[in-house]
TrEMBL record:
Protein family (similarity comment): Belongs to the class-IV pyridoxal-phosphate-dependent aminotransferase family.
Example of a GO MF term: branched-chain-amino-acid transaminase activity
Reactions performed catalytically: 4-amino-4-deoxychorismate = 4-aminobenzoate + pyruvate + H(+); L-valine + 2-oxoglutarate = 3-methyl-2-oxobutanoate + L-glutamate; L-leucine + 2-oxoglutarate = 4-methyl-2-oxopentanoate + L-glutamate; L-isoleucine + 2-oxoglutarate = (S)-3-methyl-2-oxopentanoate + L-glutamate
The protein's name: Aminodeoxychorismate lyase
Cofactor: pyridoxal 5'-phosphate
InterPro entries: Aminotrans_IV, Aminotransferase-like, BCAT-like_C, BCAT-like_N, Class-IV_PLP-Dep_Aminotrnsfr
GO cellular component: cytosol
Organism, as annotated: Rahnella contaminans
GO BP, sorted A to Z: amino acid biosynthetic process; folic acid biosynthetic process
């Protein structure tokens, strides 16, 4: 693979980052993951706008203008002949030459890296079979709206899920589901209304979540942005998760108990179909 590092496109084995990089030592870095379909970035302007917000919240400099970042992303996609998958990008506060909690001065420039990951988006098997989930305590920090690389809590949540014969975890705080370990969480109630938690510092402001709310509006699907409990999820008609690289995946069980009839739900399937149609259309497939 060709990767991008600080202004250069190089073979992955030639990309070197210092052991004193603050991303490595302090997780002092932000990231974004944009989906690529038909060789084109999906909803990338929204991802780059969120990147700018994450940077601003941490007083991190954007290495270049969003339009320039997009040019670099597209060049990387072309270099790797990526048709379907994602572009990962990360910006850390850079290499301050020592381990020191204090922010380095303006003289230290950010470390900016990107790589591509090939992965089926439209025909991913999990989108058909659905996934099994377990619930775990949400032990993450208090600013989940900032997309930082401090991802140990979601790694632990996924590991816990795998050890308990599940694919992924729903995170619970004060009896309420915040989101999933790396995606937003939704339920469908008995009347067919889509429910997802409102935006706040408790969750990541998912780009796919926002696109789905917009599509729900356009397609006259009822939805509500409100917190929901683990019990509500357990007895919901359907559950699904959303993210840039899954689009929508149905959830067929939670803590070992079937959701609905234990098969991917109809409304989830319909919303996924609407999203996929939009995604194919805007990427010109
Ligand atoms: N919540 C969390 C915790 C995530 O890691 C992600 C994936 N980046 C999402 C939600 C979904 O966000 P998006 O739709 O922008 O990929």
């Amino acid at each position: 693979r060709t990767v991008y590092l600080n202004g250069e496109f190089v073979a992955e084995q030639d990309a070197k980052v210092s052991v004193f990089d603050r991303g490595f030592l302090f997780a002092d870095a932000v990231y974004e993951v944009s989906a690529v379909l038909n060789g084109r970035l999906l909803d990338n302007a929204a991802h780059l706008a969120r990147l700018a917000r994450s940077c601003q919240a941490l007083d991190l400099r954007l290495p270049c203008a969003p339009e320039e970042i997009e040019i670099l992303q597209n060049r990387l996609i072309a270099e790797n002949n990526l048709r379907e998958g994602a572009v990962y990008l990360q910006i850390s506060r850079g290499n301050s030459g020592d381990r020191d909690f204090d922010f380095p001065g303006e003289t230290v420039s950010p470390t900016f890296l990107m790589f591509t990951q090939a992965r089926p988006l439209i025909h991913h098997p999990k989108s058909q079979t659905g996934i099994r989930m377990v619930s775990v305590d949400d032990i993450r920090w208090q600013r989940r709206d900032i997309k930082t690389v401090g991802l140990l809590a979601p790694c632990l949540a996924k590991e816990y899920a795998h050890k308990h014969d599940a694919d992924d975890a729903l995170l619970v705080e004060n009896g309420l589901i915040t989101e999933a370990s790396s995606s937003n969480a939704w339920i469908v109630d008995a009347g067919g209304t889509l429910i997802t938690r409102p935006l706040s510092t408790h969750i990541l402001h998912g780009i796919t979540r926002q696109a789905l709310l917009e599509l729900a509006k356009q397609n006259d699907l009822r939805f509500e942005e409100r917190p929901f409990t683990l019990e509500e999820a357990q007895s919901a008609r359907e559950i699904f998760i959303s993210s840039a690289t899954t689009f929508i995946w149905p959830v067929v069980s939670l803590n070992g108990k079937a959701i609905g009839d234990g098969k991917p739900g109809d409304i989830t399937a319909k919303l996924r179909e609407i999203y996929v149609r939009m995604a194919v259309e805007v990427t010109g497939g």
